[in-house]
Amino acid sequence: MELTGKRVLVAGSGKSGIAAAELLKKKQNEVILFDGNRELDVAALRAKAPVFSDAEILLGELQDSDLEQVDLAVLSPGIPTDLPAVEAIRQKKIPIWGEIELAYHFAKGPIAAITGTNGKTTTTALTGEILANCFSDVKVVGNIGIPYTSVAADTTEETVTVAEISSFQLETTHKFHPDHLNRHHTMECYIRTKERIAMNQTAEDVCVLNYEDAALREFGGTLNCRPLFFSSVRKLDQGLYLEGEAIYYAMDGKTEKVLDVEELNILGTHNYENAMAAVGIALSMGAPMEKIREALRAFQAVEHRIEYVAEIRGVRYYNDSKGTNPDAAIKGICAMNRPTYLIGGGYDKQSDYDEWILSFGGKVRKLVLIGQTREKIAECARRHGFLDVELCDSLEEAVDLCYRNAKSGEAVLLSPACASWGMFRDYEERGRVFQECVRGLQE
What we know:
This protein is an alpha/beta fold. Helix content is 32%, strand content 23%. Helix 5 packs across helix 9, helix 5 (120-132) crosses helix 10 and helix 14 (395-405) packs across helix 15 (427-439). The N and C termini lie far apart (63 Å).
């Protein structure tokens, strides 16, 4: 589709919708905004987003008459494709694109796309930093917080784009063609979306896959492009693998050590997998190994994801406030390589904490609990024979307790296994309060 002089319906008035509308207007298209929220403050929206200052704005439900002479509909990432409004658009046989497809239509230069259930953000950020160490114009976009549409018009053939993409965004792609694609762990809608992920890739492209996922091993054999596997549990003849305390790269009969994992500032096997995925993408895009090593050594954990905060009197403090449920918090425990004082608890989402407690495995020295769930988690810990539990009234009190008890060579980890609500606005505020508490401690 030649996308100039068209009438385009943009669904969603958030950050992605605004960025999509701005790109469309920049390319000389007429924008109509649709938002399902009948109570949306139109005046405030127009003030916040000048792109909508003279746009037609439709709220609530779409009428047939609203879709007359509409050439294209662009959905923001958070809009499900089975909504009645989307079905009404489909019935009118109006093409439906996602924000990613729209950005790709105008973007230039090679693209590395990263998708999967876990590890997307860290892998995207790390890949972006590695490539920024090798190329002059690198843009990191997508679910990491920057809409792809906000930068697409500024790309050139020399631009390298790294995009974090959800499975939902893939449902509304058509011609989107990443040159290099990382599929990290399994996706909840794997069967439904797998063909869309790499459907436009060719023999010149690369798809980086986790060998330890049986579905991805099988998927690798169906690709038109070249699969590049990584593994954290076995040596590979071709690909990247973790052996002992080092990452290696094997290709065409030659094996090269990438680096020792102790050189990384990120902890845990899942993060070593993230690193291997990023290395695989960077190598496939022509990045030199020494430049890759430099970026790996310099990379710091994404904020609130097992993020190193400080070392005080020989005790290392880590912020894993993003561990908002037991499954996520288990990764925080597994990543620790020191005896650990664990701060947990928060809003009660009716989770079960048995698996979390059982993951302690002798690694957790003391469990310090705060928030609405503290009594519930303490009782769960006692049932499993873990008795070294302290209850605190605030995060500040919990940090102080750990500071007074932890010894050199140990660690303090905030990984709550609970949401932050009731005590904090969100997990980010909780993480920032933890950072401030730690940095206020005395050496």
